[in-house]
Amino acid sequence: MGGVIQYGLEKGSNKWKGKLFVFDDRLVVPLSEDAEVISQCKHCNTPNDVYYNCANMDCNDLFTCCLDCLKSHKGCCCSSCETAPRVRPYREDGSSKPFRKMAHSCCSIS
Ligand SMILES: [Zn+2]
Ligand SMILES: [Zn+2]
Description:
Helix content is 28%, strand content 8%. The chain is of the alpha+beta class. It is globular, with a radius of gyration of 20 Å. Mean pLDDT is 70; it is low at 12-31 and 100-105.
């Protein structure tokens, strides 16, 4: 904690243009290792960290979605995918399995 900010201070902000250099370089490093990553449903922006592949086979994009929106959008990431020619039929029997980001599931999506 504070390592990034301290680094900037030690190096001297005038030399490195302060924050800009430090954060450009280290933006990808989370400030806290155990910080909880909160994603949002792509459609309704409620906190959600369950990922799905878009049902549009030509998109197949990975997106976070809540169950309500998954149903109402037929498992698609956006409205244009819903009307795409090759959309997997959305079924509620669990065939379109959600998976969690952190635990790499062994049952792959086929
Ligand atoms: Zn939603
Ligand atoms: Zn899509």
